[in-house]
Amino acid sequence: MLDLQRFAGCLWGQAWIIVVATICAVLNQSSSATTTEENDRGTENSSYMSEEGCPRWEKKPLVPLLSVGGRIYHLDPNVTVLPNGLFENITVYHLQISHTEIETVQEHAFSGLEFTLDSLSLVNSKLKDIPQGSLNKLVTLRTLDFDSNLITSVESYALYGLLITSLNLQNNQIALLTEYAFGGLENTLEELILINNKLKQFPLNALRRLRNLKTLRLVWNEIEDIPDDGFTRFTSLQRVDLSSNKIKMLDESSFVTMPRLTSLSLYMNRLTTLNDTVFVYLRELESLDFNRIEVIEAEALQSLANLQHLNIQGNKMLEVDDILSRYPSSLRSLQLTHNEIVTMNANSLLGQNKLEILWLNFNKIKRLQPEIFRDLVEVQKLYLDHNSISVIEGGTFSGLRQMLYLNLEHNNLNHLNVDMFHGADKLEELYISHNRIMDIEPQTFQTLKNLKILHIAHNQIYVIRKYMFEGNLPLKELVLSNTMAEEVEAGSFL
């Protein structure tokens, strides 16, 4: 049997191809039938072989068998054209061509795949435009990927004739989408990926006829504005990612075209303020993130009754007012990491009785009072690490009866008392390393009947007292490294 790697290496010079067969035995049998037997017959079939002993494309296809998918990658750099007739007599459902110098796809390059090919990827290559002529007969194609090419524009009806549901054009140089760029895809396209291109405006004109579009990713463009033409409504659009653009301002009309959104990302833009009308039309929104915001007006989130995940990390907030407490909320997770928050007041989290995870780490909070968390009856994980907390008033966590995880590392605590964790009956993991703890009162941990993991390393506990860990603590992991301990009382860990 001819070595498969040597056999494949003959494709267009030194191209490498891997074809995944439905049944490996079929691959072996087919290779044997078209190579070894011909060699055994000597010169009778020499017309099928090149001087190097490689199959000639014009005589024999590479793999005359049913296959589920194929990959062609790292072609000879001199190969710039994908030629006609390459896949005749081959059944391929998924085809990937990557890391090539291909600039041109001939009109009949995919002949033979018209009624079988389901997904096509021609990525990391040199295409400058969409090869419409070679695609329009692929009637079964549903996924098309031109990631990392040199495409600068999508001309009118460039994809006409296709019935694709997913189109990936990320990592190109697209600055222009004509009004009918997606003509023909009005009823089929559900996912459009335009990440890392050069669009300067939200492409409303090009998209407005895509009535079934559900997901739109426009990350890493140069978009400054989201226009409203007064009549377009994306009634199927659910997920929009506009992160890492240049949006400076949003108003009431910014999202009026997207009334069914459930997920919106505005992360890493140039917004500094959110006024109280920005999200007024997004009544079904469930997930929202943004950053660099300095001011969130009091009623900016008033219409988001279905919001479940809110990410406000990396902003410049100094305090959390009552922006979350004015209206009933369905929040499940809230991220306030990496702000400048110094103060949490009594109304900051008022009414958040469905919240399960809260991130308040990497801020400048100094003091915790019981009123802050009193409504968080469903919170399971609370992150308060990397703050400046020096005081935790008694009963602060008494309302957190479902809390399993609490992180207070990298703060300024110097004393732990019996009231500090009162009420946190279900707590299983407690992290208080990297503080300044010198003293732990008796019975501080003994009330935590479910505590399994306790990290208290990097503190200033000079003596490990017997009463600190005595009793029936169910600990499975206790970390006391670098606590400066000079003495351990007998029976401390019994």
UniProtKB/TrEMBL annotation:
<keyword id="KW-0677">Repeat</keyword>
<feature type="signal peptide">
    <location>
        <begin position="1"/>
        <end position="33"/>
    </location>
</feature>
<dbReference type="Pfam" id="PF13855">
    <property type="entry name" value="LRR_8"/>
</dbReference>
<keyword id="KW-1003">Cell membrane</keyword>
<dbReference type="InterPro" id="IPR032675">
    <property type="entry name" value="LRR_dom_sf"/>
</dbReference>
<keyword id="KW-0433">Leucine-rich repeat</keyword>
<dbReference type="InterPro" id="IPR001611">
    <property type="entry name" value="Leu-rich_rpt"/>
</dbReference>
<protein>
    <submittedName>
        <fullName>Protein artichoke</fullName>
    </submittedName>
</protein>
<keyword id="KW-0732">Signal</keyword>
<dbReference type="InterPro" id="IPR050467">
    <property type="entry name" value="LRFN"/>
</dbReference>
<feature type="region of interest" description="Disordered">
    <location>
        <begin position="34"/>
        <end position="53"/>
    </location>
</feature>
<dbReference type="GO" id="GO:0005886">
    <property type="term" value="C:plasma membrane"/>
</dbReference>
<keyword id="KW-0325">Glycoprotein</keyword>
<dbReference type="InterPro" id="IPR003591">
    <property type="entry name" value="Leu-rich_rpt_typical-subtyp"/>
</dbReference>
<keyword id="KW-1133">Transmembrane helix</keyword>
<keyword id="KW-0472">Membrane</keyword>
<keyword id="KW-0812">Transmembrane</keyword>
